[in-house]
Amino acid sequence: MSSIVVVGTVALDSVKTPSGQSREALGGSAVYFSLAARLFVPVHLVGVVGQDFPEEHKHSLRTRGVNLEGLDVLPGKTFRWAGAYGKGLGAAKTLETQLNVFEVFRPKLKPAHKAAPVVFLANAYPELQWEVLSQMTEPSIIACDTMNYWINSKRPALKELLSRVDIFLINEAEARKLAREADTCRAARKLAEWGPSVVVVKKGEHGALLVADGRLYAFPAYPLVDVIDPTGAGDTFAGGFLGYLASSGNLKEALEPARLKRAVLYGSILASFNVQDFSTRRLEKLNPDDLRHRYRDFVDLLTVEDGILAA
Amino acid sequence: MSSIVVVGTVALDSVKTPSGQSREALGGSAVYFSLAARLFVPVHLVGVVGQDFPEEHKHSLRTRGVNLEGLDVLPGKTFRWAGAYGKGLGAAKTLETQLNVFEVFRPKLKPAHKAAPVVFLANAYPELQWEVLSQMTEPSIIACDTMNYWINSKRPALKELLSRVDIFLINEAEARKLAREADTCRAARKLAEWGPSVVVVKKGEHGALLVADGRLYAFPAYPLVDVIDPTGAGDTFAGGFLGYLASSGNLKEALEPARLKRAVLYGSILASFNVQDFSTRRLEKLNPDDLRHRYRDFVDLLTVEDGILAA
Description:
The structure is a homodimer. The first copy, chain A, is of the alpha/beta class. Chain A has a single domain (4-302), classed as UDP-N-acetylmuramoyl-L-alanine:D-glutamate ligase (3-Layer(aba) Sandwich). Chain A has 13 helices and 14 strands. In chain A, strands 1, 4, 5, 6, 9, 10, 11, 12, 13 and 14 form a 10-stranded mixed beta sheet that branches. In chain A, helix 11 crosses helix 13 (288-302). Chain A is globular, with a radius of gyration of 18 Å. Chains A and B meet through helix 8, strand 14, helix 11 and helix 13 of A and helix 8, strand 13, helix 11 and helix 13 of B.
C-alpha cells in the first residue's frame, strides 16, 4: 500500500446554503482531500495554518490518520473563505477570500514526503504546484487540480505543469474554459492531449467524465435527495479517486481503465457523503463500512444485465 | 411484440447550430419518436400536416415501417418551428413557432389505434393528450411528455393527466419547474408521487434519472464529441425507451427495474445517434446493427468489475 502527499489549502470556511450555515468551520482543499483519501491509504498533508488554527481540528485530522508533520504554523491568521449557495446548490458565490498565511506559504518537503509514490497538487497557483513537484524524488503518480483564477491569469504555466502530470482533475466549467471548447467531451479529450494520461472532468450532480487511453467514459453522480452543502465536493472526489488508486498493490496497474472506472465511483461516493452535511462533519464520521455499503449500492444501480436486441 | 401509437407534432423545422443549418426539414415530436421506436416495434403515427407537406417525407416514414393511416391532411400549412443553438448546444432559442393546422387538430383514433397496447402522448396541450387517452380502449402502458408552456398555463390539467399515466418523460428544467423543486433528484421523486409509476428525467448531455418502484437511478449520456444538432433528442430518447419496453414479450414485465434500466440506455443511444446530424437524417439511416453495436459499447463503458474494499 502506498501513501499520498497532498499539498493544498487548510481553511476556516463560512458557508451559507438554503439548509443553514457554518461559521469558521474546518475546510480547505487539502483537508477535504485528506479526509477522503485516508480511508484508503496513509495521507501526509502539506500546508499552512496561522496561530489561530484551533487545536481541535488538528486533533480531529490526526485521529483519523492524517499525518500533519508537513503542516506549517506561521505567525498570522489561517486562510479563510466565505461563500453562499442559492437554491439548486450550483456554483458558490464567493463572499470573501482571505489568503492570510497561505500568501507567504513556500512548502519545503520533508524527506518522507519527497519519497512518496503518489502526490496530489490541489488547487493553488501553478508555480507553487511546480515548486512542490520539483522537490519530489520520483513519484509514480502525479495528480493535480486547478481553478478559474489560474486559468485566466496563468494559462502558460498551467499548460507547462500539465505536461508533467499523470492525472488531471478539473471541474466542468473550468475544463471548458481551459480547453477553449464549448463542449465538455471535446474539452476533456483536448486536455488529455496536453500531457496527462488520465483526465477526470468533475460535473457535480451530473457525474464525471474520464479520459483514459484516449477513450471517453461517462458516469452519473450517486443520486441524492438530501444535499446540504456542496463545499469541498471536488477535493473529496479527488481524495476518493486517488486514494483508491494508491491502494492498488502495483501502482503501474493503477492507471488501467478497469481500475480508473472503480476509482471514479469511489470519488463519487466520497463526494456524495461529503455534501450530506456542512464542512467536514460527514467525512469525519465516515468509516469503511459506510463506504462499502454505498459503493455496492452504486454498482447495483448502474448494473445493466444484457439486453442486446435479438438479431 | 406490441405496437405503439404516438400522438404529437409533425413539423417542418428550420434550425441553426454552430455546425450549419437546415431549412424546412422533417421534424416534430411524433416523427422523432416514430423513427426511433420503429427499430423495435410497429409504430402508428397520429398527427396532422397541411397540404404543403412534402410527399417524400411521407414516403420516407412509410419505407421505415411507420404507419401513417392516422396522419390527417388538412387544408392549410404544416406546423413549423424555427430555432437556433449557441456554442455548447444548450437549450434552443425559439425563433418562430407556427401552429398552422396543428391548432385545429382534433385527433379521432381509428379502431386499430384505439386497441394499441402502448401509447405515447408527445408534448401537446394536456386537453388534447387527455382526449386521445379517453379514446383508447385499454392500453397497458400510457406514457407522456410535456413542456414549459403547459407547465405555466395548464398545471392543474397536467397534474390530472399524470394521475392516469404509467410513464412520465420530462426534461430536467421542466421537471424542476413542474415539481417546484430546485433539486432534480427531489423533483423526479415528487413527480413520481403524483401518479406515474415510472418517471424519466432527461438531462441531455448529462444523461437521465429514472424513478421506478420509488428508487432513484442515474445514468450518464453516451459520450460524444461530434454533436451537430440536438433538435428532437428528447423525443428520440422517448422513442428508444418506449420502443424497447414495448418489444418485451410480456408488457407486465416491461416496467420492472432491470428492463427499465436497459430502456434508458436504448433511449440514450437513439438520442446520441440523432444529434449527430441535422433533422432526422441519421435516424433514417439507422439500422439494428448500428444500435446493437453502440449499445454494447455503452454497456462496456459503464461496466465496473467488482472493486469492493477488502474488509
